[in-house]
Amino acid sequence: MCGIAGFIGHCPLPDTNVRAALERMKQRGPDGQIHRYVCGGNSSDSLRVLFLHSRLRIIDLDDRANQPFQIGECSLIFNGEIYNYLELRADLARNGVAFHTTSDTEVLLQAYLHYGADCVKHFEGMWSFALWDGRTRQLMLSRDRFGEKPLYYYKSAAGLYFGSEIKFLTALSNQTFKINRNQILRYLTLGYKSLYKQPATFFVEVQELAAGTTLQLDPDLKPTEKRYWQPTVRQTSMTLAEAVEGSRQHLFESVRIRLRSDVPLAFCLSGGVDSAALVSIAAKQFGCNVATFRFLILTKGTTRPQILWPLFVTLGANIHL
Hints:
The protein is an alpha+beta fold. 28% of the residues lie in helices and 24% in strands.
């Protein structure tokens, strides 16, 4: 879980605002923080683009993969993981692209240089990112298909602020946002699922980039929002056995590419069948040295879920309760 934040506008931000934002971003990335004007920092250019990043190192632990990551006139800050980055890297290499890190960050930026804004259609993963293209002088914000990684933004007369959390926006803009009471009532009466059936957030001035969407801003800060993906239903004739086997293979492949990491992996156990099944696939199918965590509130008369104990016996899983 990294943290990203930034600003695009026609005036520099006070250093106090930037330091306040970085302080609030620390918990999202303990492995280093960098902030940089990727446009207009030390020039007469009236347009300013500021990127801030807090890194949690997962793939390619070297400093060479730190962010903002730059290739030529393009710069990237990125939160998440592109699970199929090795396959994308191989495709790009066959097209003559040379790589200098082993990170998925570089693959993301090289994919943009090769495919343009449609690069997101090639990604399988979870992400929110901001990408500045100095050649076209456009800022691109993007969020993964299901909105696993958050990305909020706030537009004012000074420019547009964005970040992984709303408190990053308050720090950068030095503004206090008005509470959206309708959103609170919606949540209390209809539950959390109702929150994503309309675009509002808990603060009136703040917007959340929708899942499966990119937002591009030109030098005049004119926004163009595009939905690059939405779920579709495609009916296919198959037998029950074919459906079961197909589901099995898709599940195995999904787990396989999500096990890619340069640091130890762990699973959170809910005590149900789904998380236990994923742990079992990782250990049995792919030989993963599994560490698991289960959070329990034990009160008088309660016991630990019995479904966890087979994991000890059959998988040798290291379970932390």
